Known about the structure:
Layout: E1 2-7, H1 15-25, E2 29-33, H2 44-49, E3 53-57, E4 65-69, E5 75-78, E6 91-98, E7 101-109, H3 119-139, E8 145-150, H4 174-184, E9 189-190, H5 191-195, H6 211-214, E10 221-225, H7 227-230, E11 233-238, E12 254-258
Parallel strand pairs: 1-2, 7-8
Antiparallel strand pairs: 1-12, 2-4, 3-4, 5-6, 6-7, 8-10, 9-10, 11-12
Amino acid sequence: MRIATWNVNSIKQRMDHLTAWMSERAPDIVCLQETKCVDDAFPRGPLEALGYNVAVHGQKTFNGVAVLSKFPIDEVTPKLPGEDSDDHARFMETVVSTDTGTLRVASLYLPNGNPPESDKYSYKIGWMDRLIHYTSERLQLEEPLVLAGDFNVIPSEADARNPTSWVGDALFLPRTREKFRALCNLGLTDAVRAATEGPGPYTFWDYQAGAWQKNDGIRIDHLLLSPQAADRLTATGIDKHVRSWEKPSDHVPVWIDLALQGVSR
């Protein structure tokens, strides 16, 4: 089973890119972030024509997550638990059936948190605390679990081409990285890092200052796996070439292969 994540930075602007990449990479499940689209306006048609079931949790202009699945989606749970007043569309958990039982896949778009001295950073840290609590509870189920998305976290110096340029940024502050380590230390595996050694690879290149041309990238898009998913990990990949397409997202797709077979009905 191939599971991918991609911050498309507006589904309507990147629809041609998405369908072209999906035809090329043939993922079974895709987690999208920053769809920037209300649910009723989400362009389901071209994706359903490719054979995908579509689950969306969006809002106008900002944020938005979606899950596309070749297999029937048994359950959909939007919104990260822990704060009823949080109306940001940043999280959605889906459940599909496999030949060995349930697979949970969550599409996440963590807060950026900049500037660090503002309420935006405290919201980021609070969101990460809620994610840690959610993950701790889900791991007790002892099922394959994949947390996939734009975490807005640079985990280490190896995950930035120029780490010194990110000192003081909310994505790279010690407290941010500490929370990410706390999440992983629950028993999750960073799939890309498990298969590669730094420096790099990267998943994001800013539109400014010729970052793409200089390969001045960072790795902030992650797939974190529960032990039951990590045991089935067979391959990982980052489709860097997508960043060179015309009018691209500033992120690129990241994918994994798991030794699982979804149940078609």
